[in-house]
Design brief:
The protein is built from 17 helices and no strands. With 454 residues, it is mainly α. It is globular. The chain starts with 16 loop residues before the first helix and ends in a 15-residue tail after the last helix.
Length: 454
């Protein structure tokens, strides 16, 4: 296997538009959608307001993608949001943004592996009680595919996302055209007195909606591996977000068309009830298969993204340099090995749940400073080439910065421990970032290789 030295420190350009769209779609849509739809309705039992919230989520991340498109095409380096944050605000904030997103990828991969194992026990009940080993059986073959090379991993993601989208469309069609046993939620709410709705209920509901869109930015992690990144990634993000927003709205419409309000609110998995009404006992099997496909394609996207963030951190001197090695297939194999070990430890320890509880406000904080990076770089580096300039600057970027800041405040208000944790991590990252900056080798100051993309 060749490493970063043999390949001149570069990842291989073997991906294109189809992959960029597929990885965003694959990362966003997971098995959690089937549970989240019911949980949002439980918090906000107003069908049209529920749909408005899902649509607003799509608009929100489209505004975020508008900012990301300028930043990733201006500084097309592998690593995700930390790249622009570090360029704008220095090593300390870059380190914080990098580690928050890297840990979130790892926690998501651990969670998705366990989701696959849980649903497999519906098909094979004898596996009950072996959740962690079975979860690793889902994880390790995916890693093996990616160690072959970026082309093989990209092909797996593109095919998986296509199958996922077709299955979701089939479920939506079944729910729309199936004859419901009782009038659906839309009819019922029109007849009943509207229940009270509180501010925190809306915040909790939107946290779940926003979480369902998590991963919209996955394509930017692969900017150095895309053959035409400066055009493909902005278009792919817009396409994948638009498609997912449409699917999310239609999925919720179909659920509320097929089930009454009380049934949805009382169920952890309303789509299972929909398919059960159509297929009878076979509905549980259909849900299990659907969930495994949704979760495994999202797992694939998270496993691809995490090591590339670690690769970027290592190359920029914010992690040991060995993680920047690349094998002959174009995969950062050392970063993959480190990431795989971390995910396996999370699976067996259950620590990913702890990470998830801490990540909500931290990820929002990461996007707040990412949004702010656009304004900082416009001021500090006005001559930086910008192949894509954020649409509606400064109004639309300022709007998404305002939305993300408001969400950060609301999330901290709902969970003050997240705010305290965030403050502690910032306090730790500042001195660590200063030390790492001083210890960097001179080679890390070289002109970055993204110049070749301009």
């Amino acid at each position: 296997m060749a490493d970063a030295a043999a390949t001149d420190g570069r990842l291989l350009k073997r991906l294109g538009f189809a992959f960029a769209a597929a990885v965003g779609l694959g990362a966003m849509v997971g098995a959690g959608l089937m549970r989240t739809s019911g949980s949002v309705i439980d918090e906000m039992p107003f069908p049209w307001l529920v749909l408005a919230l899902w649509a607003f989520g799509g608009v929100h991340v489209l505004l975020s993608a508008n900012v990301a498109s300028e930043l990733v095409t201006s500084i097309p380096r592998t690593g995700g949001i930390f790249v622009a944050v570090r360029e704008a605000f220095g090593d300390s904030m870059g380190l914080l943004a990098g580690w928050v997103t890297y840990l979130s990828y790892g926690a998501a991969a651990a969670s998705l592996s366990i989701v696959c194992a849980d649903f497999l026990t519906i098909l094979l009940p004898s596996l009950a009680g072996y959740t962690a080993p079975v979860a690793c059986l889902f994880l390790l073959p995916v890693i093996a595919i990616h160690l072959l090379g970026v082309r093989e991993g990209g092909m797996a993601q593109t095919i998986g996302s296509s199958v996922k989208l077709m299955l979701l469309c089939a479920v939506i069609g079944i729910a729309f055209f199936a004859d419901p046993p009782r009038p659906g939620a839309f009819t019922q709410v029109a007849q009943d007195n509207a229940p009270a709705l509180g501010f925190f209920a809306v915040i909790v509901a939107y946290q779940m909606v926003y979480g369902a869109y998590a991963g919209w930015d996955s394509a930017i992690v692969f900017v150095e591996e895309d053959k035409n990144a400066l055009t493909n990634i902005p278009r792919a993000m817009a396409l994948s977000i638009g498609a997912v927003a449409l699917v999310y709205v239609l999925f919720n419409v179909s659920i509320m068309q097929a089930l009454d309000l009380e049934t949805i609110r009382a169920s952890d998995l309303p789509v299972a009830l929909v398919l059960g009404n159509v297929f009878g006992p076979g509905g549980a099997t259909a849900v299990a298969v659907l969930a495994i496909i949704l979760a495994s394609t999202a797992l694939n996207a998270n496993i691809m993204g995490g090591p590339r963030i670690l690769f970027g951190l290592a190359r920029d001197g914010l992690f040991p340099a060995m993680a920047s090695r690349v094998n002959a297939g174009g995969t950062p194999h050392v970063a993959f090995a480190i990431t795989a070990a971390m995910i396996v430890l999370m699976i067996f320890s259950g620590s990913f749940e702890f990470v998830f509880r801490l990540m909500g406000a931290l990820i929002i904080f990461g996007f707040v400073i990412y949004d702010a990076s656009l304004f900082r770089l416009r001021g500090s580096q006005p001559d930086l080439p910008r192949p894509f300039r954020a649409i509606g600057y400064p109004v639309l970027p300022a709007l998404v910065l305002l939305i993300d800041t408001g969400l950060l405040i609301a999330f901290i208000a709902a969970d003050p421990m997240s705010g305290l944790t965030m403050a502690v991590l910032i306090a730790l990252c500042i001195p660590i970032g200063i030390v790492l900056h001083r210890k960097k080798m001179p080679t890390t100051k070289q002109e970055p290789e993204y110049e070749i993309l301009r």
